[in-house]
Amino acid sequence: MKLEGLTVLDLSLFLPGPAATQLMADHGARVIKVENPRAPEPTRSAAAFPWQQGGETVMFRNTQRGKESIALDLKTAAGKNALLALVSNADVVVEAFRPGVAERLGIDYASLSAENPSLIYCSISAFGQTGPWRDRPAHDTATVAAAGILDVTRSPEGDSGPAIIGVPIADMLSSYLALSGILMALHRRHLTGEGDFVDISMFESVLASSPNIMGPVFGGNQAPNRLSERTHGGNAMLNVYETGDGQYLALGGGEHKFVEALFEGLGRPDFIAAVTGPAGRGHWEAIAFLRDKFRTRSRSEWEAWFAGRDICWSPVVSLHEAWRSEHVLARGMRFSDTEGNDHIGSAIKFTMEPAQINTKLPAMGEQTAKILSELDLTDADRKAILNGL
Fold this sequence. Notes:
The protein is α/β, with parallel strands linked by helices. It is built from 18 helices and 13 strands.
């Protein structure tokens, strides 16, 4: 597999770090999860994450599979000595402490790279390791709000307030950027032998995902007027419409061929020229027509109408419906292990050496004794760690 031979130490919790390191585990890396025995990975908790399969939370199962767990209290001398011993043979460290915490613990990049100059050290935080917002506490929704994305996430119909985005985009975008940065740094290390520090900001991961909506900000020095912007409700062909049975469908592409196929099919070719043009006022009459038209039939009736037509569209399905679709199953994005537990598959697909997913989950500290036996530690440190479990 692509990452076979790499050793990754995962000091992170919850989602961004664990999601990145799980992708690495899926593709062959040895990922050792370092857990505090007094405060283990929070997603293990059924109280906080009540949906379970096979005795584990769904969240834990889909962020921690294929890893090993070592229980270390990094505030103790023995725990810190064990981490330093781990680092000496590791390739990558991923942590998501608030800025300054790793330094106070003596496990920051400067400290660990002194033990291993070729180490790739990735920090994921809300706003990054520098700047005036460095110390502001924030999780996904707050960073998305700070990036201006909640303000533009509103219904195109009516005067609704900001809507919470249905997936934790700051968490996941920062996770993927962390993986990208780590792989870039590993490539550079292959050429130079030098390690590196990767500073990933959840806030910046959202900012960086915005090039298609920055026209009015950079070009006009103003916030977007939603109903004049193509992706925020001002384009008839990039919009959401209610159907007659209270469900919804989405149009998702404004190329001329799609516009032509839709409005000729609906008997209104007079809208083609305007809807092919710039978003905004020229689209409003067509949008009003489509709102009325789509309410005349049920979602299933519209699905039958769209079948075979070259139009970019989709019904708005529930999460439950999406994950049962034949395409999701055919592509292996949902699969079951031998015990019948569901897993999210790998979205990174290779022809050569594809992911070989290990669905085993580590109990907290399950591999502690085994991993300690591999390290150059004193017997006193080993005993201190094992007695503290």
